[in-house]
Amino acid sequence: MWIDILRIVARRWWLLLLPPAVVLVWTVITYRTPQTAYQVTLRFAAGLPPEQTPGVYNYDRQYAWLASEYLANGLSDVVHTSLFAQNVLKRWNAPGASISPEQLEAAMTADQTQSILEVYLTWPNAAQAAQLGQAINDELTQNGTSYWPQLSKAKGGPVVALDKPTPTGVAVSLRNRFDIPIRIIVAFMAGLALVFVVHALDPYLRDRKELERMGCRVVGQIPHRV
Question: Most exposed: 11, 60, 67, 124, by fewest CB within 10 Å?
Fold first, then answer.
């Protein structure tokens, strides 16, 4: 059986190599070296001082802690807005830089764990990443109350920066590492499938074994081969 399969593949080996060759040529033409990226991770403690109302029990500040979680969650949504990106770029104001708010917005992600707001900035330039991280710090700590009408009269900033904007290199993604080998493997599988499809559609008999499988008795073969 395996010998027959090898014969089929050897007979149409060029079909096996055609898809990998096409994929390889296309990959060489379109290949771009993965861009170096840096990430800045910033954490902020979110919250406001509890209201001091004489004669009113504050439930051991339970509502203050609950409100801080709501605030952290709300600010994580604010980070994904174009208004926040615009304000950060105004603070950065680097000479000669042309970065749109959409670019910065796409480079930022945010998450929230209880009262902790986490902001992640991924940027191709380490120095700019540190400067933008500082601008994000300043915007949230100095101007965080402006994004919520109910905080317009709040005393003190709604967040406290817990980290310095320190960029760290981002490792090459698994997709960039294995993209080309996976493409070649899939192309070989497609080429192998193409070989068997063409063999199944071939109307010609190539050797005596194909006749014997059809139940025909072979008396002789010209030219004579065993």
Answer: 60
- The dihedrals phi and psi of 51, each to the nearest 5 degrees, come to -70, 135
**Of residues 80, 69, 92, the one with CA closest to residue 158:** 69
Could you tell me how far CA 43 lies from the centroid of its own chain? 22
Assess contact for 72 and 117: CB atoms under 8 A.
yes
- Written as one string, the DSSP assignment of 87-113 is HHHHHH--TT----HHHHHHHEEEEEE
Question: How far is Cα 74 from Cα 198, in angstroms, rounded to an integer?
Answer: 60
The pLDDT of residue 226 is above 60: no
Q: Is the dihedral of CA 158, 163, 165, 169 positive or negative?
A: negative
**Domains along the sequence of the chain with CATH:** 2-33+174-213 (no CATH), 38-169 (3.30.1890)
pTM for the complete prediction?
0.62
Q: Which residues pair with 116 in a beta bridge?
A: 45, 113
Residue 91 phi, psi dihedral angles, 5° rounding:
-70, -35
Residues 134-183: tens digit of each pLDDT: 999 999 888 887 887 766 666 555 788 898 999 988 876 667 778 888 99
Residue in 143, 111, 72, 137 with CA at minimum distance from that of residue 64: 72
Task: Give 212's contacts (C-beta < 8 A, 6+ positions apart).
Answer: 218
CB-based contacts of 138, cutoff 8 Å, min separation 6 = 91
